[in-house]
Each structure stands twice: as structure tokens, then as C-alpha cells.
Design goal:
CATH architecture of the largest domain: 2-Layer Sandwich
Shape: globular
Largest sheet: 10 strands, mixed
């Protein structure tokens, strides 16, 4: 009899937070990769810094809250909040050290070799350059700055979250003479000390941080704004001697605590909480390495921060400025050639989308294919006199969203427009509040999410009056209705007028806008009530098939995997003989060294030019293959605390296309990292394997499709039938 294992044991799981740090290490690995164009490496290093900021503001902040509250419950891997926090501190300090090693030792010298010199310290400026930056300061920076002194009448100011600041110790210029007059005896002994005061200035975010100096011998040169301000500090504090100046930056707890049950108006409550973000607990302090100890002690005391939360930085603070450096003109050979999303092969230019959808379901693969059909779907519905209603969920949208404009126009055209705008979309709350108000003003019915849940699903329903009666057109997707991120994130979507899915879509919106919970569903599965059970059923069905010697295989692609019930079910399925291949971009709490699973589980993470965002789930089902897509990762928050949708790919031709997406990613030998049994990730062992980049393969495929379509169109236009030729 085969040995059985208790797969709920903590030692069979990785800690979620440490797994996230491992993900950022993989992104950092791209910044280190010498095979990647230099400016792309800058971009990846910038992304690691941006990722780390959000990680601290949300995840580390949450751990600190738990520690402060005396929360002792252990996580999935058996670690208390205090143990997690200690481990995360060690891991993130190491990550930051590697970030700056990469920047200082590798990227800076390479930039200089390739015609871009970064002046690191203002002391290194030539007399000519010093004159230039002083004039730049006087004309562009000085009028914007607000110097702040700290004394008995002026308390320590509010330091804004993520802002870059200069802290200085200053002394009045006449202080030494005054002290000598009062204490003549000290003059002989030479023990007169200045009375130092704290002064600060915030580096304004409204001015570009990268300042270009005049070129020299064809070499572009830049200096950072804080160095220019530091050089000119004496102009901000005219009656003081500047003893020392050092930059510092803080991170605050930015995780909103919203009492939704007590909030009479959710929109007003979130607006209030957004203002409170600037007052959140300081959870991280970055200071320039070598900061004067006297200044350090004052800042540390005022911010009430512990030593383990201080990061001594050997270089410029906040490496996200590298994304702006990436945008500098003139370095195109050092960047990957930009990819232009291609037209959807099945759709003619200016096609009537409703006619096309009636012919067959349409699969959209972004960013390889353009996001335009999704925008056009809303635009055409807004103008179409036969469209009666448009209903849509919005989680994150772009700053100047054409979809918002189309929805507003639809309402003004007299159509019934219902929009669920998720106000609790983290770090997009303010943007979503603005759009919600605009939509309401245009006459749309706006719902602000559901109490206690985030609405994360991506669905649009268009109700249209046609000859045979009412027809419902639906778009379901794995990504946001954001035309800008659709150029950077890999996502899939389906346009369909399948009657059963249309019925389900109506039920979804009735549930979101009221209290109407359907008795059952045709094809869709929703969280938080049904989706987790659906996934567990599908996994267990594969297990049963394997035990009965029927074909059994699972291929699942997602952003994160940390739900303990799902992981336990995967272990049991693997132990029964199911071949499980997982493509998990970020957090993965599942291990591959668990006893009894017989090497049946593999995990790969793909980090490339595009951010992998699609969620796809394949189940072999004894030869009757089923493929699902959706908005949910295998995480407790997605399966238990959000409104999410899982939808099947019903059309057989579309099913083959989606399977092709998985197949190409499973064959990646260039950007795929494999989870090893010791918990580390390594690039695919390429020995004997050709280089194969999944993202580049998709770019090639869709460009070839577009080229073939253009060629076909040209041939049709130039073809002249023989009868016409005879007549002429």
C-alpha cells in the first residue's frame, strides 16, 4: 500500500513574503543579464525598486500591524508575523545591496562607455558645469522649493510618503562670535561648539529629476536634481552655515483600513483614508550611506524608526528614476526594438463587431494583438441605435481612458449604462474616484463595489435589440480595461454572443447591483461563493482520472499561487500520478520537493519584456480537454474575498489557440526560471536546447499573421477576373 502524507504540514509550503522577494530577485536577474540591451537592464532595475516600494507599503506594513497587535497565528509555512518580518528584513537588505552593486559596478560604467555619463556628486562638476547648474537652479528650481527649519516654534514637518528630501544641520553665521563673547574662557581652550539646528527641503516631484548638462565631445551627461539642490542649499538658508547635507526618503504604511459597514458613503470614506496615507506609520527609512551621525540620530528619533528598518544606500535614493533615464532620446540601439500590437487577423478594419461576433467567438491576445477591438466594442455600442444597455466592471483604467469617454457618451445617447467602479483598487483609488464622478455626471448608474469585497472580475455586457429579439454580447478578460497597460501586460480576452454566457453575464450584474443571487450558472464560476469549489473539483477530477489510469494532466498559468487548499489538492493529485505544470510569474508557496509527489509537479516563472498577467487553466479530463481563463489567481484573497470570474473557452478553434499559448511558454528556454527543490529559481538548463523566447515567438507569429493578411488584401484588390480582361 502506498504511503500517505499529511500535505497540510507547514514544512510543505514556502512563506508568501519570502517568495515575493525571490520574484523581485528574478526581475533583478534581468537587470544583471549581460545578454539584454543596456537600457532594458536599466528598466528592470527600476522595476525592482518600484516593486519593493509597494511591497513595503502593503505587505511589510501588514506584518508590522500584526506584530504591533500581538498577532501570534502562524502562516501557511508555520511562521509567526515576527518571524516573517525578521526574515523579510534580512532578505530585503540583501536585495537592496544587490540592486546597488548592479547599478554602481555594472550599469554606471557601461553607460559611460556607451555615451551617457552620470555625474554622481555635484562636487565633481567642472567650473563651466557648475555655472550651468547654478543658473538652472535659480531659474527652474529655487522658486518651487520650500525650505523648512525645525526649532521650538517650527516643529518637525510632515515628511510625505515616498518623497525625496534633503536633511541638513545648520548653524547661525554669527553663532561662534556670540558664544566666544559669552564664554571668553572657552576661546583659550578651543572648545566652543556651534548650536546646530535641523533644516530640510523636499525635492519637488513636479520638476524632472534627471537634468541634462551640455554635451561634451558627443557624450550626453546628466546629474540628478537633488545634487543641484544640495549644491545650492546656502541660497535657501542665507543666514546659516551649512554643516552637512544628506538625502533621505521614507516609506509609510499605505494599506487602507476602511470600515465599510460603518461607512454611510464609501466614496467619501475612501477619500478620507487616502489623505490619511500621508500620516501612516513610517516602516522604512532610506538614507545616503555615510550620513552624519548627528543628523541620523535626529531623523531616527523624530520618525520613531528602528535600526533594522533603516537602509544605508551607496548611491542615489529611489532607483525608479532609471525609468525616466530609459526614455532619454538617442540611445535606441541600446534598447529592444519596440513592438507594435498587431491588428486582430479575424477582424477587418472598421468591422462591425456585432456582425463579426455573431459569426463566431473572437479571441484577443494582448499585447501581441491590439486592444482596439475592446475599446471599439464599447464605442460602437455607445453609438449603435439598437443597443439598449451597456454594463461593465472597471478595476484599473488609464489616465485618459477612451472606454470611460465611450461609456459617458452612451449614457448621454440615452442608453442604460451601469458601471461598477472598484474604489478599493489599491493605489488607483484616487483615479477611480475621479472616473466614478465623471460617469455619474454623464448619467451612468455607478456602483462603488461591494461591502467587504473587491470586484476584480473583467466583464462587459452589451444588450442589443435585433430582428430575432434581444441579443447579449459579452467580453470576458484576464486583464484590466486599461488601454495603456494592455501594451505592456500579456492578457487574453473573448468576445462572444453565446446565449448561455449572456444569461450568466446578466446574472453577474444583477448580483453586483442588487441582491439577486442566481440558483445556478450555465458556464461562469464566480468567487467568493463558487469559484474555489470549482477549481478543487477540477483538480480532484484529474486525480480520480489518474487513479483510474485515464489521461490526467494540469497546466495552469497565473500570477501567484498561495492558497493552501488548492496547493494541498495539487499535491494529492500529483501523488496520484497527475502531471502538473505550473507557470507562476510571482509568488509561489508550493514546493517541488514534497515527498510522495514523484516529480510530477514543475513550476516555471517567466520574466520578460512584457509582464505576464494572463490566467489560463488546462485540464486534460481523460481526453475531453477543458480550458478556462479568468481574473483570479490561486490565492485566498482572490478565491475568498473578491468577486472574480472563471470562464470556459468553448469554441474548439479558440481552445487550440489558448493551448498554443501554454505550449509556447512551456517551451521557453530563455526567460523561464525553474523552481528548484531547494526553493531557488534558476534559468532553464540550455544544454542541447535552442534559444527559445516565448514572448518573442508570439511577436513573430502575430507580425507574420498581419503581414499575410495585408498581402492577401493586396492580392484581392489587384486581381482582375478574366472576363473583364477580355472586355478591355
Amino acid at each position: 500500500m502506498a504511503e500517505t502524507y499529511d500535505y497540510s504540514k507547514p514544512e510543505y509550503y514556502y512563506n508568501r513574503e519570502l517568495s515575493w522577494v525571490a520574484f523581485d530577485q528574478r526581475v533583478l536577474g534581468e537587470a544583471k543579464d549581460k545578454n539584454i540591451p543596456l537600457f532594458e537592464r536599466l528598466k528592470f532595475l527600476s522595476i525592482t525598486a518600484s516593486n519593493l516600494d509597494e511591497f513595503f507599503m502593503v505587505r511589510v506594513a501588514s506584518l508590522k500591524d500584526m506584530v504591533n497587535a500581538g498577532y501570534e497565528k502562524k502562516d501557511i509555512a508555520g511562521m509567526t508575523a515576527k518571524e516573517q518580518l525578521d526574515a523579510v528584513n534580512v532578505a530585503t537588505h540583501q536585495l537592496v545591496e544587490e540592486q546597488y552593486n548592479t547599478y554602481n559596478r555594472s550599469l554606471l560604467p557601461l553607460l559611460a562607455m556607451n555615451g551617457l555619463e552620470v555625474i554622481e556628486r555635484h562636487e565633481d562638476l567642472s567650473a563651466e558645469d557648475a555655472k550651468f547648474v547654478d543658473r538652472y537652479f535659480q531659474d527652474n528650481v529655487y522658486p518651487v522649493l520650500t525650505p523648512m527649519a525645525v526649532d521650538s516654534s517650527r516643529p518637525f514637518p510632515l515628511i510625505r510618503n515616498k518623497s525625496l528630501n534633503l536633511g541638513a544641520l545648520v548653524a547661525k553665521k554669527d553663532e561662534e562670535k556670540r558664544l566666544i563673547r559669552r564664554h571668553l574662557f572657552q576661546r583659550k581652550s578651543g572648545t566652543v561648539e556651534k548650536e546646530l539646528e535641523l533644516a530640510m527641503v523636499q525635492i519637488p516631484s513636479v520638476i524632472p529629476r534627471i537634468v541634462q548638462l551640455p554635451e561634451k565631445a558627443g557624450v550626453k551627461r546628466v546629474i540628478l536634481l537633488e545634487q543641484i539642490v544640495e549644491r545650492n542649499m546656502d541660497k535657501l538658508f542665507l543666514n546659516y552655515d551649512i554643516e552637512c547635507v544628506f538625502p533621505f526618503r521614507i516609506m509609510r504604511n499605505a494599506d487602507l483600513s476602511i470600515e465599510e459597514d460603518d461607512a454611510a458613503d464609501l466614496l467619501k470614506e475612501i477619500e478620507k483614508q487616502l489623505k490619511m496615507r500621508q500620516w501612516g506609520q513610517v516602516i522604512r527609512l532610506e538614507v545616503e550611506e555615510g550620513m552624519d551621525q548627528r543628523l541620523m540620530e535626529i531623523i531616527e528619533k523624530e520618525l520613531m524608526i528602528e535600526e533594522q528598518d533603516i537602509y544605508y544606500i551607496p548611491g542615489p535614493l529611489d532607483l525608479t528614476f532609471l525609468m525616466k533615464m530609459y526614455g532619454l532620446p538617442g540611445f535606441e540601439p541600446l534598447k529592444t526594438k519596440p513592438y507594435t500590437p498587431q491588428p486582430v487577423a479575424e477582424l477587418a478594419q472598421d468591422a462591425n463587431l456585432f456582425e463579426e461576433i455573431r459569426k463566431h467567438d473572437i479571441l484577443l491576445h494582448h499585447p501581441y494583438e491590439t486592444f482596439a477591438p475592446v475599446v471599439d466594442f464599447i464605442k460602437q455600442a455607445a453609438k449603435d441605435p439598437d443597443v439598449l444597455a451597456i454594463k461593465q466592471t472597471l478595476y484599473r483604467v488609464s489616465g485618459n481612458s477612451p472606454i470611460i469617454a465611450a461609456l459617458a457618451q452612451a449614457a448621454e445617447n440615452g442608453k442604460q449604462v451601469s458601471v461598477l467602479v472598484e474604489l478599493k483598487a489599491r493605489f488607483d483609488e484616487e483615479n477611480n474616484i475621479i472616473w466614478a464622478k465623471k460617469l455619474e455626471k454623464a448619467g451612468c448608474h455607478v456602483i462603488y463595489g461591494l461591502v467587504g469585497l473587491k470586484t476584480h472580475c473583467k466583464i462587459t455586457l452589451v444588450v442589443r435589440k435585433e430582428e430575432h429579439g434581444i441579443c447579449r454580447y459579452v467580453h470576458l478578460g484576464t486583464g484590466n480595461y486599461n488601454d495603456q497597460t494592455a501594451k505592456l501586460y500579456t492578457d487574453l480576452g473573448v468576445l462572444t454572443c453565446n446565449e448561455a454566457i449572456g444569461e450568466d453575464a446578466t446574472a453577474v450584474f444583477n448580483m453586483l447591483s442588487g441582491y439577486s443571487e442566481p440558483l445556478g450558472w450555465n458556464h461562469l464560476a464566480l468567487a467568493p461563493l463558487w469559484l474555489k469549489d470549482k477549481f478543487l473539483f477540477l483538480i480532484n477530477r484529474e486525480k480520480d482520472n489518474a487513479l483510474a489510469n485515464r489521461p490526467a494532466r494540469i497546466v495552469a498559468k497565473m500570477n501567484s499561487l498561495c492558497d493552501p487548499d488548492v496547493i494541498k489538492a495539487l499535491y494529492e493529485a500529483a501523488a496520484a500520478g497527475v502531471k502538473i505544470e505550473l507557470i507562476v510569474r510571482g509568488i509561489c508557496c508550493l514546493r517541488t520537493d514534497v515527498p510522495g509527489i514523484h516529480n510530477n509537479i514543475s513550476v516555471r516563472s517567466i520574466v520578460g519584456n512584457f509582464l505576464e498577467h494572463a490566467r489560463i487553466f488546462y485540464f486534460e479530463n481523460a481526453g475531453k480537454e477543458e480550458i478556462y481563463m479568468g481574473s483570479a489567481d490561486w490565492m485566498p484573497r482572490n478565491l475568498e474575498r473578491r468577486v472574480e470570474i472563471l470562464f470556459p473557452v468553448l469554441d474548439e478553434s479558440l481552445k487550440k489557440k489558448v493551448w498554443h499559448v501554454l505550449e509556447v511558454q512551456l517551451n521557453d528556454t530563455q526567460k523561464a526560471h525553474i523552481l528548484k527543490k531547494d526553493g531557488t529559481y534558476e534559468k532553464v538548463d540550455r544544454r542541447g536546447k535552442p534559444l527559445y523566447n516565448a514572448q518573442e515567438e508570439f511577436c513573430r507569429e502575430y507580425m507574420q499573421l498581419a503581414t499575410a493578411k495585408v498581402k492577401e488584401a493586396k492580392e484581392q484588390r489587384t486581381f482582375i477576373p478574366e472576363t473583364h480582361m477580355d472586355e478591355t
